[in-house]
Each structure stands twice: as C-alpha cells, then as structure tokens.
Amino acid sequence: IDKRFDEVDKRFDEVDKRFEQVDKRFDEVDKRFEQVDKRFDEHDARFDALAKKLLDHDEQFVSVRQEISLLRQEMLTGQDEMLTILHRLDQERAATISWIRRVETQGEQNTKAIEKNTTDIADIKRHLRMN
Fold it and tell me: pLDDT-derived band of residue 3, with 50, 70 and 90 as boundaries?
C-alpha cells in the first residue's frame, strides 16, 4: 500500500508539476493579454482624440456653411440692387434717346423755319427794295 501511495504521490507530483507548467504558461498568456489590453487602451485614447477632432471639424464646417450662406445672401442682395440700378439706367437711357430725338426733330424744324424766314425776309426786302 505504501508503494501504491508513493506511486500515486509521484503521479500527483507529476500532475502538480504539469499544473505549475500550465500555470506558468497561463501567467505568460496573461502578461501578453495585459500588453494587448494596454495597446487597446492606447488605441482607445487615440480614437477618442480623433473623435474629438472630428467633432471640432464638424462644428467648424457648420460655422463655415453659415458664413457661406450669409455671404451668398449678401451677394444676391447686391446683385438685386445692381439689377435695379441697371433697369433704372436702361429706362433713363431710353428716355434720354427719346428726348434727344425730339430735340433733333425740333432743331430740324427750327432750321427749316429759319431758312424759310430768311427767304421770306429776303423776298420782303426785295419787294421793299431795301437792298
């Protein structure tokens, strides 16, 4: 019986050694998991920083879009004002052209009347023998 106990004790010692070896391997694996976990923590911190930057950029884009919208509105308002001025100038141009034509016509009529009056005066002088 002692012999069997010794054999069983030896087996237990061998199993115990194997458990110790497995435990050492588990410790090594655990160390590797801890290293991987540290790397995940580092990556998580980096992702948080990137997410924060993305949110900051998103806020900046919203601000830029608002500024562009305001500038666009100001530009369209300015263009509307320019078109109003252009229409008014075009109307004034048309009125000025019409006025110039009337003045030219009146001038031509006056020139003809002056020529006729000059001819009439010359006829009257001849008739009165004022020459």
Answer: confident
